[in-house]
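Q: Structure tokens for this one, please.
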Amino acid sequence: MSQAALPHSTKSPQGSRVARFLRNYYIYLVLMAVVVVMSIANLDRFDLFERGNFLNRNNIINILRVSAPLITLAGAFTLLMVSGHIDLSIGSAMSLCGVVYAMLAIHGVPFPVAFALAVALGMGLGAINGFLVVRLRITPVIATLITLSLYKGVALLLVEDGVSAIKSGDVLSMPGWFNAYGRDAVLFGLPMAFWVAVLVTVVLIVAQNRTLLGKYAAATGGNPTAAKLSGVRTGELVFLLYVIVGGTAALAGIARSSFMSLGDPLSGDGTELAVILVVLLGGTAFSGGEGRVMRSFVAALIIMALTIGMLTMIPAYFQTLVLGATLLGAAASNHLVSRRKPPS
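A: Here is the predicted structure, written as tokens:
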């Protein structure tokens, strides 16, 4: 045995086990750290579970309730990015679907029909993105930037001149069920919108881990040429993922509209950035090939916990800075851990 080979053969596996553990579970450690810091920050003024403390039951319910749109979007967006693609129109699609849902509701369309039509619209918007990317071969960033403007423009056109959103007025009013989906508690104090978000996440976790969808998405993002040579219909896969993302955008738009009790054509502005940050924080590679839906779910909780938790802790003009610094630190830590692969 040569001396050059000695260091490799005698290397302790302890460091590899630690690196593997951190790579797999760092996102949970970050969530725990956020909860601990937020919980003890106001102990000088409030008891641990008292109203005003982060761990107060009402505060936790509020965080989970307002997290519904982001959680709904995170899983599908993760799979799309794992395949090596991106959708920058997701916020505008969310706004447009929310506006259409509100229009249907205020004109007397029953909840099941309005819900189904809004979701169908979202899937159709996703299909348009898929067509531009897969069939016309337009770069995903360019294609979805185009549809970002297109969907937002349509949403703005649907709102009458002189008003900023579709909402109750002198002539028409929202039905009583409109707020129920996003606000009324159905289980553990949480509304249907949150449980739908959890259901969507569970379905996508199963799809990623137990079906060919997750396997083929990773293969397409990791090496699309090799995936094609292996028989993967990469075009059909990417098209399907865009449709799924569009459907989740509709669900997120419905949840946001129901919570706000109106259809705002600008309600999804900035959502695309928030979802990208969530997915990257969850460890998904921007170039594709790697990412987990479950980690993105936890990352969405981290973002919302920081956003809500900081409201009573620091001035508003510092909140964006703190959030960005926290995200940068977590993403950098993930990168440093992930770039060194443990030996097999």
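A few notes: Confidence is low (pLDDT under 50) at residues 1-7. Strands lie at 185-187, 190-191.
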